[in-house]
Write a structure and sequence with these properties.
This protein is mainly α. The chain is built from nine helices and no strands. It has helices at 3-34, 63-67, 82-100, 105-128, 133-150, 155-172, 179-192, 195-219, 231-252. The chain is globular.
């Protein structure tokens, strides 16, 4: 059966993965706001401005934001655009995982959770300069499960990643990279599954980081003394290398 013939069959599942991703994105927003503050993640959702407990219809991913017109139903204060954007991004990541794994449900489910954790960690680190162990360790575990499912545990990739960032951590006494970044790199190696892609991922992280830093300097949003969180760049490079690593390597090796 051709890909064109299969597309009508997989479309409902693709939509389902997207919808599930938005649900996890909604929960990701809870983690983003509560974990850094040490708040429980099991309490009822509430408005961050007036603390009014939200009703069920106000918690529907994306839809509630539209129905509420980006304002709290009680205090009328603006609702952050972060909520729908995170939900849409996570929905897209879930759909991408389903497609990338060639529609294998178990593989796609594990990879979806891995990408969701990566994205959530990136947002938290960008906001707080910290990576919660409560997310980082489950990420490593799920990344290992994914690597086993794909049959792609590559010890050299782990040695390269952990060695490169571990050496920076030792030489700088934790000033250049944090311990959370090192744990994140272990997940990165497990996800990418080859030492070639690991090198591409590391290189790409520094390119993205340099470009963002230059943009901040040019716009005056940051000075040379400011420190940028590195996890967002690692996450961006990991996802990009996972999805397009084969193409990048094909270009580098000249076909």
């Amino acid at each position: 059966m051709s890909e064109m013939d299969m597309s009508p069959l997989i479309l409902p599942e693709l939509i389902l993965f997207f919808v599930l991703g938005t649900v996890f994105g909604s929960f990701g927003n809870v983690l983003i706001f509560r974990l850094p503050k040490g708040e429980t993640i099991f309490g009822r959702s509430h408005c961050t401005s007036c603390n009014k407990t939200l009703r069920a219809w106000q918690l529907i991913p994306i839809v509630s934001f539209v129905l509420l017109r980006a304002k709290c139903a009680s205090c009328k204060k603006p609702i952050s655009w972060q909520y729908p954007l995170v939900e849409i991004a996570c929905g897209s990541l879930f759909a991408a995982a389903f497609t990338f794994t060639h529609f294998q449900y178990v593989h796609a489910a594990v990879l979806s959770l891995v990408l969701w954790l990566l994205f959530t960690i990136a947002i938290i680190d960008a906001r707080t300069m910290r990576i919660p162990d409560a997310l980082n360790f489950p990420l490593v575990l799920l990344s290992a499960v994914y690597a086993v499912l794909m049959g792609q545990i590559n010890w050299l990739a782990l040695v390269i990643g952990l060695g490169f960032f571990g050496l920076q951590w030792v030489l700088s006494n934790g000033a250049w990279v944090g311990s959370g970044d090192i744990i994140l790199v272990a997940s990165m190696a497990l996800i990418l599954g080859s030492w070639e892609k690991m090198i591409v991922g590391i290189f790409l992280a520094y390119i993205i980081g340099s470009a963002v830093a230059a943009l901040f300097l040019l716009t005056g949003n940051k000075s040379r003394k400011d420190v940028l969180a590195f996890a967002p760049f690692l996450v961006a490079s990991t996802i990009a290398t996972l999805l397009y690593g084969d193409i990048i390597l094909f270009i580098l090796y000249g076909g």
